[in-house]
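Interim report, section 4.2 (structural modelling).
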Amino acid sequence: MKNGPIFFLGLFTALTLSWAGTVLLSNHQLGALSQYYDENESAAFPLHQPGLAARGQLVYADLGCAACHTQQVRRPDFGADQARGWGDRQSVARDYIFQSRVQLGATRIGPDLTNLAARKPAYDADDLMSLLYTGIIPGTKVLTHPPYKFLFDERPVVGQTSAQALKVATPAGSQIVPSERAQSLVSFLLSLKNTYDYPEARPMPAEKKEGEHGAKKEEAPAAKKEGEKK
Amino acid sequence: MITAQTSASAEVTAIDSAARWPLLLLLVSAIKWLVLSGVLALIASIQLVQPTFLADCSVLTHGRTVAMQESIFIYGWAANAGLALALWVLGRLGGSPLRATNWIVGGTIAWNVAVTLGLIGIATGDATSIAFLQLPRYVQLMMVVAYGAIAVSGVLAWAGRRTEGTFAAQWYAVAALFLFPWLFTAAQMMLLWSPVRGTMQAVASGWFSQGVWTLWLAPLALAPAYYIVPKVTGKALPSYEFAPHSFWCLLVVGGFTGGRHLVGGPVPAWIASLAIVSCSLLLFHYFVVFMNLRAGFGRGSTASRLVAIGLLAYVFGGLVDSITAFRDIAAVTQFTFVEAAQQQLALYGGFTLILFGAIYYAVPRLVGKGWASGALVSAHAGLALLGVALLVVSLLAAGWAQGHDMLDEKISFPAIAAHMRTWLLVAVAAQGVLLLGNLLLFVNFLKTACPSAAAPAENPFRPPATMEATAS
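Predicted structure of the assembly:
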């Protein structure tokens, strides 16, 4: 370590190696991932986000929703994600290619949201608005979500009640109307629907089940092959 | 017992007095951020048991509170305090007074203005929602420039050192000074200015957040630790010949732990496998650090005891990290408070306790007199240890219960929250204890560092003669 330049070069190499080994290599594999064209349906998946939903994703980011919610479903033998009805298949890299800010999340204080719009029974916009406003899960009486009343405006009713007004108890002559941010956020949440079954998301055949690593590793080459085909 | 006045001033050299005001500025900024981050951590932990708490305030949604707390803990407290001590170590081991001290002052002011602006940015809706990189991109360029200005002084001290040989403390300090700007700008480019596609963002963000720990914060903590332990014990470090291997192990292998939190995620499995293997390889580094610095675990002053306990937490944190990385364990602990516990063990137990010890050691030498109140020193040390222990244990317990409940799909989320409630209340108490302790540190620091402060009380340190006799 007496030699300054060599020490400096060592530091630089250490950083560059790990960058190349993790980021560059996986970018080589994932960076060019494209839509999967299904000939039976004559459509390519995943679909592009609607504009309002893309704006809603930015609201999701700036409110910090990812501090409590993940957006990734793991495979059946890894956690109870699918048993909880969060999705019928594991999330794959292709699901996210059109998202401007991917937020897989690292904590599940609340449920996963990857497939929120495909839940059974499905939530509709009214349910989500009321959840955001009251903090109470629709159909129950438990308050588990913070009530984000700042996403809504309380307005006097002039003439007719607004079509968007929430169905909650309000003082006479006033109504609760979702702000533009609330609308785009809900639109984003309702766009979360990864139901198309990509080949790389299908479970491995039974004979490979003995080795967890072997089963999982198959995902990578499969994904790569599909990417090259396009 | 020598009185504080004479003992500390006897130790002040020209090297320390040249660095006094710039480094005290860095330290006072650091402690101020630490207190503020404690307030936010308390709010965030209350929100976990009482979702309605401050929910109406758009500035303090749970997500934003967590983002602000994390940002100012790392870029406010850890960066300022870590840089101050790294520069101090480099100055002392370089053998000449720090040069370019005006750059330190200018850089510190710019850095803290940038962090403040970034904080306002998060509060008003510009958070990036990327772990450890929450500050909006418009302040990040200013942060890089400010960091460079502060680091100039350290680089000059390293390049102009009087001795040909170098010490482990210097390697770690220089590595931290150099690597952060690269890491930070690379992450900004990949995630904010010209974002990579899809889940590559998760991979790049994982590489960055693990790099912040292994390439920046861990070296910043180890630099003062490797300096202070031999100073206090007065002995050569045992197994020191392994220290270079351990250093390079941390730097080379550390960056490969990037996929640590992507186990089972929508990325190729090799990324996670590589990270799991790297976490295990890093155990070599943690083991050597423990062997090198085990002499510090003996009896000593509050300062050296804090460093020793911090080192223990550092090593233990590495062990927990490598264990919870394995897929079978991760199936339970992933996405739970166990991960928060591991992070707190490393950041609060490892990094922060070592830095507390180093601050208690360095400040009297910088200002030329002992701490204003020895009672406050002991009280803060006690509260910090109690708080860290309570926090880590409560989060571990909450997370373990949470992980097992989540595996059973019949247990609903409200039921899981009810099971964790007791432990999360303990975590609230722990945050309160930590905040109180840090307030004491802030008061004591101001009383000590202010030029007009009255004569100091008792000296919590061992007589300096025993330390200085064995200057490395």
